[in-house]
Model the fold of this input.
Amino acid sequence: MKYVVIQAFDCPDAWYKVLHEIWYKGDSFEVGYGSERSKTKKLNLSIEITHPENRPLVDDRAPCDMKYVQWYALKYLWSGVIEEETYTYGSRLREPVDQVEEAIRRYLEERGDRQVTLAIRLPEDIKKRLDDRKHEPPCLSLIDTEIHDNQMHLTCYFRSWDAYAGLPANIAGIQIFNEALVSEINRRGNLGIKTGKLIFHSKNCHIYERQFKIVEELLKPGEDSRRKILRSKQT
Done:
């Protein structure tokens, strides 16, 4: 099992670097059980994004746009139940304990608190549900938080992560979630905390076989040069 550490400037940079590392260094892995049985390329990896607040949050070639990212952040992460979904990350963060509210209260009491971990995965998720494919265990298992140097840093764990289609919306949405969390703490406490780094870990960050041609095209040398030009203009 290969393990890779990726350092990225912002969210689009992280997406591109993850795809590059998986495509050229990834292990072959055939998914035997889960939401999709497929051959994949995958890595066990960590990502450090130093300036996730930088706009745009989504690369222009990612298979999602800001309209979707905003919906994902506010409806799927920040708020609760969505009727057509068995659960959302937000519903698990809000019930039976409103962990987001408790996180806000704890940081208003003590900014040096290092115990504010938001858990999404539940103990019963270990059970295999052959009769309910919609009830897959969450890919995002936890969001750990810490205020350091007056910045809110988030560390997140994904047990499984679709690098091409899921990752760009996930990291952009989590940045918006962090901005909402910081905004609420600042509003209630009359504080000036800012968002900080986003750090991610995943044991199985992957590209599905059906995505191979798309990723190969995206990583062509000409596209790499184009991307560097765009990044220099943005930063």
Remarks:
- The mean pLDDT is 92.
- The helical segments are 11-25, 66-78, 89-94, 99-109, 167-189, 212-218, 221-234.
- The chain has one domain: 3-234.
- The longest strand covers residues 194-208.
